Structures are given as C-alpha cells and as structure tokens.
Amino acid sequence: MTILIPLLTILAFISSQDGFSIHPRYAVFVLPLLYILVSKVASSRLNVKWVSGLTVILLAWVVGSSLSFYPYSMSYFNELARKPQNYPKYLLGSNIDWGQDAYSLKAWVERNPEVRPIYISYSTPIPLEKLGIESNGAVPSEPTAGWMLVGANDLFTRNGRLDWLKEHEPVGMIGYSIWVIEVDKHDPRPQ
After folding, report:
1. What is the pTM of this model?
2. Which of 71, 94, 174, 182 is the most buried (most CB within 10 A)?
3. Sign of the alpha-carbon dihedral angle for 32, 38, 41, 47
4. What pLDDT score was predicted for residue 182?
C-alpha cells in the first residue's frame, strides 16, 4: 500500500488535470513506483534463481539501449522501431520533437557551408533567425532543387504539404528529429 497509494494518487492527479492525452511523459515519473510494485509481485510469485540473472541482463540491455541515443534522448525508441526513419510511424508531435535539435541544426549548417540552397522547415520554440541560422526560407510545397532540412513533425504532418519529399531518400539526420534530404538540381521531381 505504501507504493500503490502514491502511485494511484499521482495518476489520478495527472489525469484530472489533462486526461490521458498525447503526452505520456507527464506520467513517466510514476514508473519507478510501478517498477517497485511489479518487482515485489514478481519476486513473491517467482522464487527461481535464473529469474535474477535474466533481470540483470534485461536491465543492462535497457540501460545500454537508452544510453546509445545520448545526447538525443528525447527521441529515444526501443529496438522494435528499428531505425530513426521509422519513428514517425509510431509517434509524432512533442513525443519525438520539441525543438531540441535546433542547436544541432545550427552546427550542421555551420559545418556545411557548401550546402546551398538550404530550405528549412523545423518547428522550434526559438526562431531560427535568433539562432543565427540562415536559409532560403521554408521547404517549398512543390518539388524544388536544393537541400531540405525538415523536422519530423513538418514532414509527416497530415496536411500532406511536403509529401513530395517522402519520395526522396534522406542522406542523413540531424539528431533524430530532422531529416536531411538533397534534391538534385537536374531532376527535382521524385522518380
């Protein structure tokens, strides 16, 4: 009851404020309490020695997997999602991107001065101009030659404005939330 009462109280408070919305991270801090509760139930029911070894192995796997995403931890997914290009199939919005890769975007643009023209569509709380990121404007809604730096939320939005870009293979990613797509100047249309 020492674990269960605080767990249920916190969940009740969170759900009374926002409901169970698209922001599951609001409830993440109750997970340690849930883990303790589940471990007690599991240990009382399973008194087998190999379970302890398996638990240590699985715990090491989870820690190693999540650390492999550092410093892009906000966009962390487990191995079932396979590669970062698959992430938008499962989640979008603030679950994958809150503008946390804006400084990485700035560094990428500064490291690649030969890459022009650059079009950027990336939602960030800090305007790109304030970060000193210069571009040729937002990614056009029609096929255009150049380098397209597109945030996951902008590329995979339901309005379909940038669907033409999905036909092009990304040449890289900035963090795990910005796709880098080069559109050839000789053939800006998808093949």
Report:
1. 0.69
2. 174
3. negative
4. 94
